[in-house]
Amino acid sequence: ASITPLKTAFASYFPIGTAFTNDEMYGENANLMKKHFASVTPGNALKWDATEPTEGSFNFTSSDEAVQFAVDNGMKVRGHTLVWHNQTPNWVFYDSNSQLVTKEVLYARLKAHIDAVVGRYKGKIYAWDVANEVIDESQSDGMRRSLWYQIAGDEYIEKAFEYAHAADPDAKLFINDYNTHIPAKAQFLHDLVQRLKAKGVPIDGIGEQTHINIDYPALSQIEDSIVKFSDLGVTQEITELDMSIYTSSSQSYTSLSTTLATQQATRYAALFEIFKKYKDQISNVTFWGQDDAHSWLRTSPVTRLDWPLLFDDNLQSKSAYWSLVNAL
Ligand code: XIL
Q: Which residue numbers delimit the GH10 domain (predicted)?
């Protein structure tokens, strides 16, 4: 039987995307990407440590290649990410005496970075994850105590959205986070977006990373959050979907059993039933990688094999793939 492209299978619901690293722009990985995916997210190439490793000295080699690959092949691009506490060089936050900078200095650096990066890909990147992982539901105000926060309180978030909007008024601007199924976290995120909207901050959407595993969380919690966010007047995108087969960090298997492959397929199908039900709220569903061999979960949180995606190490369709296409 011929293999239905995912993007065709889901064409009446939402564009299907994948993250990729630049080694996937060649050979069979490139063919798989072009066949199945309507959008792509460079997995690392647009992060601050890649594009501006030292102040004012930009390196767009990887990001230019990645964006051009997408443009040449008619795929939309999600830009990831502008403000984050990880993969951001220390110089952003410190002065030459190793003291934290003032918020004025921080904002000048942020604006220069966003002007350069967002401006460079104006018209080529349709959506930006402007702020990534800013919520920490263990804090009384829900705000992560990152260096961004330590220097500027939560005001850096609206600055980032304003700078991004000025650099590309047509780009859709997202706040992106993980574990958005946790009710307390979802509420903080909801209320932050509500406050930003009330202030007139240009925010268009919520990105739900959706790094889940084979038995957690309950899919009803994912659905509850989609519903919770739907009164905000913003779109939602599933930005980093994958499903680890592990239920604890101490497990380590040498192969994917048929039992787990089937369990994963069933769960993926059920998850997509939810996404399809909310297709009017969800404007993209992106997997955090095509094939298991390229998954970040093979090195995080520990180095071990994992099989979280739709295609196996040999780029063959897994049960998870078939469960999605056959369920349509
Ligand atoms: C990951 C990349 O896939 C890895 O290659 C890198 O080593 C670490 O970052 N949440 C995010 C993504 O927002 O940027 C992360 O990507 C995965 C978790």
A: 1-327
Q: Which residue has the tokens 């939560």?
A: 154
Residue with CA at minimum distance from ligand 1 atom 7: 296
Q: Among this protein's residues, is 133 annotated catalytic?
A: yes
Range of the domain at 228: 6-326
For every residue of 170-198, DSSP letters joined together read: TSEEEEEES-TTSHHHHHHHHHHHHHHHH
The tens digit of pLDDT for each residue in 200-256 reads 999 999 999 999 999 999 999 999 999 999 999 999 999 999 999 999 999 999 999
Residue 208 bears catalytic tag: no
Q: Is the pLDDT of residue 309 over 90?
A: yes
In a domain, 314, yes or no: yes
For the CA of 211, the nearest atom of ligand 1: 18
Q: Tell me whether residue 89 is in a domain.
A: yes
Is residue 328 very low, low, confident or very high in pLDDT (cuts 50, 70, 90)?
Answer: confident
**What's the pTM value of the predicted model, to 2 decimals?**
0.98
Do the domain assignments include residue 14?
A: yes
Pocket test for ligand 1, best of 179, 287, 288 (most atoms within 8 A of CB): 288
Q: Give the number of domains in the chain.
A: 1
For residue 176, the ligand 1 atom closest to its alpha carbon is 13
1 pLDDT band, cuts 50/70/90, is: low
- The DSSP 8-state label assigned to residue 47 in this structure reads S
- Of these residues, 52, 133, 158, 208, which one is catalytic? 133
Which residues approach ligand 1 with their CB closer than 6 A? 43-44, 132, 209, 240, 296
Residue 149 lies in a domain: yes
77 near 124, Cβ under 8 Å?
Answer: yes
> What distance in Å separates the CA atoms of residue 189 and residue 90, rounded to the nearest whole number?
26
Q: How confident is the model at residue 132 (pLDDT cuts 50, 70, 90)?
A: very high
The CATH code of the domain that includes 72 is 3.20.20.80
- In the chain, the DSSP E strands lie at 16-20, 39-42, 76-83, 127-132, 172-177, 205-208, 211-213, 235-244, 282-287
